[in-house]
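In this supplementary section we document a worked example of the pipeline. Step one takes a protein sequence of length 141 as its only input; no multiple sequence alignment statistics are reported here. Step two produces a three-dimensional model, which step three serialises into structure tokens for compact storage. The input and output of this example are shown verbatim.
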Amino acid sequence: MHAASAVAVAATFVWLGMVLAISFLEAPLKFRAPGVTLQVGLGIGRLVFRALNSCELVLAATVLIALVVGGPSTAALVAVVVATVMLAGQLLFVRPALTRRSDQVLAGAEGPRSRAHYGYVILEVVKVVALISSGVLLLSA
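The serialised model returned by step three reads:
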């Protein structure tokens, strides 16, 4: 395995691990902790997801650069591009809606829960599948 391929594999699995740990473990569990109100949970979530998404951007760039340098298989490149497009969709389309709603809730507004969470989760599941696929394809190359 070339150095660029090793970097791509490592960054892919770090990215996958971060998404699984934050989106599918931390996010739902924080609201079950004693004393965590909706407002506190939203405040924590905003900070955590801002940090996660920043790390994801760095990891996506790292994987893409490593793949360009290392000459990946087309399938691995497509899987990484799918994951990156899902991240872009979350950042450009879903996160702004979630931010608007959390701003309202933090300001004391009541109302129905945001459906934007469903969009975020769908994109997150597709991203996880793409990251698993790209990691496996990179390891088998």
